[in-house]
Design goal:
Layout (H helix, E strand, L loop, with lengths): L20 H4 L8 E7 L12 H19 L8 E4 L6 H8 L8 H4 L19 H4 L5 H12 L12 E6 L7 E6 L4
Parallel strand pairs: 2-3
Antiparallel strand pairs: 1-4, 3-4
Helix pairs in contact: 2-3
Length: 183
Amino acid sequence: FCLYDCDIPVQGAVAIVLTTADRARDLRPRPAYIAGYGQRLAFEVAGRIGSLSSYMDGGRSSSRLTWERSGFSPRDVDVAQIYDGFSASVIYGLESYGFCKEGEALDFIQDGRIELDGELPLNTFGGSLSTGRIHGLWHIIEGALQASGRAGARQVEDVNVSFVGASAPIVQGTTFIFVREPY
């Protein structure tokens, strides 16, 4: 990796408010609803980074839980936010979360497929490589904004299912599905 392959630390703050679907119905601005969640924790010894295979396993197992719990599959996703603390993270994420087979992500991202008006708009806020590192929280916020129709100029048309995935060499997999309507 080189300097521009890694996000940079920035100062930032995010607030996430959780409530029941019944209470959220009357909230303004419009909320997003969590349809599924998965996590795999496999903390490595401090100072040691996990292997690529454990990184991929974390993405596979957390997303498997998310797909099962939500009833959705990668084919149902309208927009995705995949943690990109390193330039290769999105490639690994696309493969381990099931959007394409292993070894096919570089072909998958070609021909505008991940652009705002593409088949799978990806990291619609610009990603951590553009905005800086606050450990995937930008991704969660953007996933919720997309599902609730509040992403402004970045809004993807007709979003019903918004996927958020974060895998890292230390904490190895967290995934969410946000939806527009109560689930």
